[in-house]
Amino acid sequence: MLTPIIAAVASLIAGIFVGKLAFAKNTQRIEEEATSKAADIVKNAELQAENIKKDRILEAKEKFLKLRSEFEDDSNKKKQILVQNEQKLKERERNIQISMEQTKKLESDLNSQKQSLTSKEENLRKKTEEADRKRIQAEEMLASQVTQLEKIASLTAEEARQQLIDALRAEAETKASSIIKNTIEEAKLTATKEAKKVVIETIQRTAAENAIENCVSVFNIESDDVKGKIIGREGRNIRALEAATGVEFIVDDTPEAIIISGFDPVRREIARLSLHRLVQDGRIHPARIEEVVAKTKKNIDEEIIEIGERTVIDLGIHGLHPELIKMVGRMRFRSSYGQNLLQHSREVAKLCATMAAELGLNAKLAKRAGLLHDIGKVWHEEAELPHAILGMQLAEKYKENVEVCNAIGAHHDEIEMTSMISPIIQVCDAISGSRPGARREMMESYMRRLKELEELAVSFSGVQKCYAIQAGRELRVLVDSENVSDEKASMLSYDISQKIEKEMQYPGQIKVTVIREMRAVNYAK
């Protein structure tokens, strides 16, 4: 009986032992797997931490480079402001020195005039005494002659008096005509001398720069690697820039520089600012280029108003109409025979104020007329009137003073001068334009030819925009793709070239390029 029980117990014990061994092995295997997985997790975590660390280091370096670039730009701007302030300070010191010298000269002239006046008063007193003595002698002689005439001629006193009066009247008229003639000649000589003195002193008291603006702008870059981004794949970026701004971008071997060429200063400034923003942003592609150029054009309009307001404040001119202020700001981006129009107008305004003060006229009114005398040149619409007449009409439209309007219209003799300010404006305009190096006739004719070239192309149907580039040797015409087909674009290029040959005179040859770009735009809403 006990044997089966013992066997069963032994089997049970053996099974329990085997189960424990199996459980122990399974537990050990699970522990090893867990240890291996933990090691893998730690290793992966260390790799991820290392990658995150590298990314943070790269981000920190990029942020450092960006901050350093911003700091350098800010430093350069502050340096430029310091240099400009130093130049203005030097110019003010020079003007103060000139004013002190003029004051000393005026004091010396005043003293000499006082001495001369004292001498003249003494001479006048002596002449008065001499005249009184002669008058008494004449009265005595007259009485004697009356007595003799009455005795000799048997004339009455009244008749003798009448004959004597006639004789004295004839003698007085002869002497008076001689005195008047001498006085007029002396006045002419004195007037000429005084006029020359006023003009010379006005020129001496007004300093002006004679620098002539060029037709190119230089855009500086930090590295030549940026040139590749600006050009773009197969030149698409630079073509988009030229099409949007209407100027030529010259990307050559010049180190760290890109040349922006164009005869219109406004276009060059828009191109320069747009390129600066694109390079700073780093995203340079056709769509982004068009967006940036559109924003820059809007900013330029705001800058024009700011320039006009700053100019009238600097000159102390008040109550100017907002439209006239905008025209004054637009002068900054226009030139006359190579001379910047705003600089020329500011100079004329200062000259007019100085000359009017010397002549005892209204200096503020003369300064106002001097600033506005060329506003007809910046009117945004085409007009066949001379710029002086157009400027006068604009001044009348915006309720300017009658004398100011006449001075604007008469400074090139298109109308008759009706006030003393008008000849002052004409003279000061001539002084400013005739300074050595102030103007170039060839520049004005060159810019006029390029404008006529663009206007000729725009006159054709279907033309949206037109830009003359490469000093007028190439004409790029952008047409409406919906109204002008490929075949018509080819014919349009030929028609424009034929019209240029017939109606214009130019050196060499002009390449006419018609650009037709097809765009399909839709919006997902």
UniProtKB/TrEMBL annotation:
Keywords (A to Z) from UniProt: Cell membrane, Endonuclease, Hydrolase, Membrane, Nuclease, RNA-binding
PROSITE patterns the record matches: HD, KH_TYPE_1
Domain of life: Bacteria
Uppermost EC category: hydrolase
Keyword Zinc: no
Region described as Disordered: spans on this chain: 105-132
Skewed-composition ranges (Polar residues): 109-118
UniProt keyword Isomerase, yes or no: no
Domain HD: 341-434
Pfam family of the protein (one): HD
EC numbers for this chain: 3.1.-.-
Stored PANTHER family: RIBONUCLEASE Y (PTHR12826)
Job of this protein: Endoribonuclease that initiates mRNA decay.
Protein name: Ribonuclease Y
